[in-house]
Amino acid sequence: MSYLSHARATLALGLPLIGSHLAQMALHVTDTVLLGWYGVNELAAVVLATSTFFVVFILGAGFAQAVLPMVASAVGRGDETQVRRDTRMGMWLSIGYGVLIYPIFWWSEALLLALGQRPEVASLGQDFLRIAGLGMIPALLVMVIKNYLAALERTQVVLWVTLAAVGVNLVLAYALIFGHWGAPELGVRGAALASVFVQSLTFVLLAIYAGWLPELRHFHLFQRFWRPDWQALAQVFRLGWPIGVTSLAESGLFQATALMMGWIGTVELAAHGITMEVAALSFMVHLGLSNAATVRAGRADGAGDGQGLRDAAKVAIALSVAFGAVMVALFLTFPVQIISLFLDESKPQSSEIIAFGVILLAMAALFQMADAMQVMALGLLRAIKDTKVPMMAAAVSYWGIGIPCGYYLAFHAGLGGIGLWAGLVIGLVFAAVTMMWRFWHRVR
């Protein structure tokens, strides 16, 4: 295949995945906005509770993410039986994980109080998590089916189902939070019920598509689902748990930075939150391209096509770099306009938030390429089933280098919030260089 053909194939896979990632973010934004209208304590509780849910979710999602390269590789080999085995055991592991971690949500008030949260916020957070925790299993199963379909290059349906979920969540959460249209007024519990319903509905729709679409029936995805397949389960577990830990290390880097930014000041924390939202939107594009690269490179690896694997990797990296360059230009050219989108400029301290946000957006421009390259390298390494060394590289880069550097620069070198973001840049650069070297060394 020519480089142009690789680019077309990568974009055909990646664009719907990018759209679905952005739509997934919209689910979180919807709940945040609605509860912001409902009450301050409710908003604070759900922001805290959803962060807790996400940390637990991201660890368990490693098994779902392992399905993507494993299925892609099996398709490349023409092994349809292994496609079914790997996906089915990915679902088994997701269900088992969801059952094991539910007690964390049931007794979450004690955990939140131990972290120094106010009693009323901790109580509301537990009300949310006791219901929302029931959605952990369908949420993880959705991830498994999404990755199964992506590996089979069926990404359009993932986009449309996710977009539909955003609409259903908006209507249902609005009714249950505020008590409109004859529904009971449930506040945070209404938001949790809406989330569980939407996650369950999404799984049912994707499962019906994956199991009964004529073009996919020959995989017999749900055939004898109740029967254990210990060999496949062990393979998915071995590949999946390091992916979960790697994702946890990266998300923990940003969570810890936000916590330390709160020690510096309210204005700095507000500017940090806005800038991170902007950076996260950009990151979703790189993540979608990385998912597409995992599929393309995984299929080539399964087929034993070393040249195709390297060419697919080069094209995916080039696309990610090109988009990153555009975002760097936007961040540096229109920083005030971008930050102002998130603020009412007539309110007190808005000008201070904008001024500090402009500086942070320049720092975000610095780590755009590094963030793009580390997530692309992770996707490519997963394609060749290399997850344990990247896990160790992530832990060292983010927690051995990024966090200590950020803390020192912020609180000992006197750079404040800028120092914290410099730590992010250093950690991400180290991770990008290490993981890219690892990938090209493996496939040289």
From TrEMBL:
Its main location: membrane. The keyword Transmembrane helix applies. GO terms for cellular component: plasma membrane. InterPro entries: MATE_fam, MATE_MdtK, MdtK-like. GO terms for biological process: monoatomic ion transport. The chain crosses the membrane at residues 44-68, 89-108, 128-145, 157-178, 190-212, 232-249, 269-289, 315-341, 353-370, 391-411, 417-440. Pfam families: MatE (PF01554). GO terms for molecular function: antiporter activity; xenobiotic transmembrane transporter activity. It is a multi-pass membrane protein. It is found in: Cell inner membrane. The keyword Transport applies. Keywords: Antiport, Cell membrane, Ion transport, Membrane, Transmembrane, Transmembrane helix, Transport. PANTHER family: FMN_FAD EXPORTER YEEO-RELATED (PTHR43298:SF2), MULTIDRUG RESISTANCE PROTEIN NORM-RELATED (PTHR43298). This is Multidrug-efflux transporter. The lineage of its organism: Bacteria, Pseudomonadati, Pseudomonadota, Alphaproteobacteria, Rhodobacterales.
